[in-house]
Amino acid sequence: MKSTNGISPRNDNSKLYCPHPHQIPPVNDLPVHERSGAVYPNSRGFMSFTLVRFIHTSISRNHGFPIMSPKKKLFTTAATSTSPKSSEERLVVVGGGAAGVYGAIRAKTVAPNLDVVIIEKGKPLSKVKISGGGRCNVTNGHCLDKMILAEHYPRGNKEFRGSFFSMHGPVDTMSWFSDHGVNLKTEDDGRVFPVSNSSSSVIECLMSEMKKRRVLLQTGKVVTTVSTTVGGKFLLKIEKRTINSVEYLEADYLIIASGSSRQGYTLATQLGHSIIDPVPSLFTFKIEDPHLAELSGVTFHKVKANLKLENVQKNKPQLSQVGPMLVTHWGFSGPVILRLSAWGARDLFNSGYRGILLVDFTPDLHIEDVKTILIQHKDHFAKQKVLNSCPSKFGLVKRFWKYILDREGLDGNILWASISNNSLYSVASLLKHCSFGVTGKGIFKDEFVTAGGVPLSEISLNTMESRIQSHLFFAGEVLNVDGVTGGFNFQNAWTGGYIAGTSIGKLALDATLEEVI
Ligand SMILES: Cc1cc2nc3c(=O)[nH]c(=O)nc-3n(C[C@H](O)[C@H](O)[C@H](O)COP(=O)(O)OP(=O)(O)OC[C@H]3O[C@@H](n4cnc5c(N)ncnc54)[C@H](O)[C@@H]3O)c2cc1C
User: Fold this and answer.
1) Alpha helix (H) ranges present in 281-410?
2) From the CA of 123, how far away is ligand 1's center (Å)?
3) In this structure, which of 139, 183, 359, 489 has its CB flanked by the most CB atoms within 10 Å?
4) 4 domain-assigned
5) Distance CA 211, CA 217 (A)
6) How many domains does the chain have?
7) Residue 5 domain-assigned?
């Protein structure tokens, strides 16, 4: 049953989880506490759910901070077990990336009494750190209209035309960071960065907000399995990465914000979700052309590129992109290529990253204009060597002009007067339809994301709650969402985290009210 705002009502069975003092086992059998309130199994192996719940209660009383003396604190807990329900509820967030951290902070902001624990297997916010070449492209400041914004998501574009970004869009993100002390600037192309030009500003802000709001962050621990208990809670198995130990932690709410990690996908499937096969997005193209290496570093301000792949619907609009392009040592990069790689991610994967790239190097000129310009140039510069004089209207560098002449088999040392009009028409044709063989996928160091993950059809974008499992939420790259470069991927993470955190915070507050009434 769903409530009218799309948020599932809490499972009332959860109230059965307050243990009676008689259920407390002898002290020697009690598990040892961990910093987060996570617990090791006792000498009998797995803990009973009731006991997990009990340990949970003791943690709440201590605001999630270290409990040094299990004995003492457990008895304290038993004495206070009639406190309000809200303080007994816990959100566990799997993954301390952008989506998980933002979601945790938001949940704790809406419901300060909720225990919020993030389990992170590595270092928190590690992708934020390296993002945008170490500057962190937080969001995009030129796509404020949600319809235009949605167009920047090869996976997600249809679904994001709805309320998703209206609930927390780029302006809200920028305000949030500004309000929390991170001054931002918008560059000419719309990318938003911290004024400090350092991702550390973003990380410090988020870490300090987590500390202030008492979000508990546990690092070096992997959530390996998850199941549901009879009472409708989540039971998480957590393994430490460095030592051979296992802990179990119970949660009333769960956000899976595990990015593109396979373990995260596994957790989603354990809770009944399907996974759309993950494939890479945002990569450069390897091009088969021995002469291209000589052009390494050449940039084109504006080209139009069409990607032709076998078994793909002809003239698929997104496989044609206009914008800057860059020649690398072994192929092409730049916004046009990255956008093509994103829109064609799945087709490219299916084609083994092989296809034909047709590039128009003079996209603002009709082919007849290109021919006319060449003929006029021949008239005006008849006595100059072809290589030394390229029509300025084309805006091409000499190195690339030589490449074009070489490809046409023209000697650059001949004079313009000596070149036939037919040869010039061929040059015009090559400039408009220059074909390159794509032979593979390169590694683009600045940004890389994964297409695929939990299908959007399996969650409600109004709440980020699973349509399959009540109180389970997803945010960020774990979903079948990916954006092109320019801050769109982080925006997906901030928005998803914010909506999930808000939904959980409201549910936790409602639970408190229920208890009071
Ligand atoms: C090099 C690079 C640069 C980028 N630059 C930009 C940019 O400038 N702008 C932009 O918009 N996007 C950028 N991106 C994309 C952006 O980083 C991601 O879209 C974004 O980080 C996704 O956030 P997330 O929280 O969903 O996932 P992540 O940031 O991947 O966080 C997921 C976290 O979950 C943890 N985790 C996973 N499974 C488990 C588990 N089972 N137990 C415990 N922890 C787990 C992982 O260790 C990870 O820390 C860049 C990506 C890369 C790789």
Assistant:
1) 335-343, 345-350, 367-380, 398-407
2) 11
3) 139
4) no
5) 9
6) 3
7) no
Beta strand 253-256 pairing with 90-94 = parallel
Q: Are residues 188 and 233 in the same domain?
A: yes
Is the same domain home to 139 and 224?
yes
* Residue range(s) defining the domain that contains residue 250: 12-17+85-278+452-516
- Cα–Cα distance between 102 and 464 in angstroms, integer? 14
**Ligand 1 mean position to 490 CA, how many Å?**
9
CA of 445 to the centre of ligand 1 (A): 14
User: Residue 52: which of 72, 76, 28, 34 has the closest Cα?
Assistant: 34
Distance 103 CA to ligand 1 centre (A): 14
What is the CA(189)–ligand 1 centre distance, in A? 23
CATH number for the domain spanning 485: value is 3.50.50.60
Q: Name the token pair of 77.
A: 């807990």
pTM for this entry:
0.84
* Residue ranges in the chain whose pLDDT is less than 50: 1-86
Q: Are residues 99 and 245 in the same domain?
A: yes
Relative to beta strand 449-453, strand 276-281 is antiparallel
Same domain, 476 and 329: no
What count of residues does the chain have? 517
* pLDDT at residue 446, as a whole number: 66
Backbone torsions φ then ψ of 331, nearest 5 degrees: 170, -145
Out of 93, 138, 445, 489, mutate this one to test ligand 1's pocket (max ligand atoms within 8 Å of CB): namely: 489
Q: CB-based contacts of 296: which residues, under 8 Å, 6+ apart?
A: 327, 328, 329
* CB-defined site of ligand 1, < 6 Å: 94-100, 119-122, 126-127, 130-132, 136-137, 222-223, 257-259, 261, 263-264, 446-449, 476-477, 487-490, 493
Q: Is residue 6 part of a domain?
A: no
1 assigned to some structural domain: no
What residue's CA is closest to ligand 1, atom 17? 127
Give Cα separations from 192 to 259, 281, 486 (angstroms). Answer: 22, 21, 8
pLDDT on residue 45 = 28
The residue whose C-alpha atom lies closest to atom 14 belonging to ligand 1 is 447
104 and 148, same domain (yes or no): yes
Q: What pLDDT score was predicted for residue 25? A: 29
